[in-house]
Amino acid sequence: MSDEVPGRPPQGGLAQALQVPRNAKLGVLAGVGFAIAVYAFRVLELFGPFAGTREYPVLGPEGWFAVLAFVLASSTALLVTAVLTLVSAYGLLKET
Fold first, then answer.
1. Is residue 91, in this structure, part of any structural domain at all?
2. Residue 77, in any domain of the structure
3. Using one digit for the tens of pLDDT, what is the confidence trace for 30-73?
4. Where are the transmembrane segments (predicted)?
5. What sections of 10-95 are H helices per DSSP?
């Protein structure tokens, strides 16, 4: 059973032509890698302690920075995926 509507071109063709699945995988890898690196530098204080002290209720500093790392990973993954998809679209336009 297919989800395609009869009489219309297949919908997955554009996503495949723009290499969206590959771009999404690369975006997730880049986002997660970047977030892990930033989290490690901040929480492990690899550049030394950061100036200023704050209180982090409920989760503590590691918990709050883990939440921020998730947001950073998600936004970086979306940005990388969008840029790679635009590059793929530009390549397709140059071919035609």
1. yes
2. yes
3. 999 999 998 888 877 776 666 666 777 788 878 888 899 999 99
4. 26-44, 64-93
5. 12-17, 20-43, 60-95
